[in-house]
């Protein structure tokens, strides 16, 4: 077979190049036509009052909108009794506590801070707060001391108590200083309640198993209480600082007396009395401010009001009033 001559070879190359250019032009023409049709369809939809087709949006725009939708929505809560909305925390708030003098509110969150708010600012336009940093952890529970010069927190990861002292500055603010050492780790289950006696003589911590610990202010365990309630749901110190009570899986509220000597030295914790009458687990209870009454709420759908102003060594508390839950909207009928 004879080889192609130079002129013939050049002609063949030109022909192939021309075909390639024609194919490229055809592809480009088709792409432009498709873009024009898409733009025209979107413009027509907008002109006719219809929203543009979401399928025609670029992928990056879709991804941006998807990320935007995943952001939590901020709800504006309104109520005729709403005094203020306090905003400073950047995480979920787990607990709050008013000081005994009513001047301050403490809040703790998983943003590793405790905020102290002045209640006199609640009706003002701006709500200032003082921040206490919780180093290397975050607080899940917070309680003011009776003299309002300190507060305690329960650490989520450390599973123990930390004490913060409040020192007033010349400008009216406070400096928060954590004690050098946290309380020793003693509980083996998740904590459910903490409290400080109004006398300032002891601290109470209760965990979700059956354990309640009575501490002195230096972090030493004075007494260990086994509630025998399968598991604890709540515990509290009475306003008079005489009693500690708990409720849990069993249908009763158990109350103990924390005894101190005349010189203020701790002596013992003894069983005082029980509130019996519910037919299912007790969710919560509360003392009255004078410690003469107690109230309890149970899974059986009832609430009960008790007279606890008795000599418990001689007589038991007695039931004053009970109410039956009528519906899920917390409407009650009272049986006196």
Keywords, separated by commas or semicolons:
336 residues, WD repeat, repeat, WD40_PAC1, four-stranded antiparallel beta sheet, WD40_rpt, signal, 16% helix, alpha+beta
Task: Describe what this molecule looks like in 3D.
The protein has helices at 6-47, 59-70, and strands spanning 93-98, 104-109, 113-118, 129-133, 139-144, 150-155, 161-168, 174-178, 191-196, 203-207, 211-215, 221-226, 232-237, 243-248, 252-260, 266-276, 282-287, 293-298, 302-307, 318-325, 332-335. The protein has two helices and 21 strands. By secondary structure, it is of the alpha+beta class. Residues 327-336 have low confidence and may be disordered. It has a five-stranded antiparallel beta sheet, with no helix packed on it. A four-stranded antiparallel beta sheet has the order 1-2-3-4, with no helix packed on it. A hairpin with a 5-residue loop joins strand 15 (252-260) and strand 16 (266-276). The chain is elongated, with a radius of gyration of 35 Å. WD repeats lie at residues 86-118, 184-218, 275-307. Keywords: Repeat, Signal, WD repeat. Pfam families: WD40 (PF00400). This is Transducin beta-like protein 2. Residues 1-30 form the signal peptide.
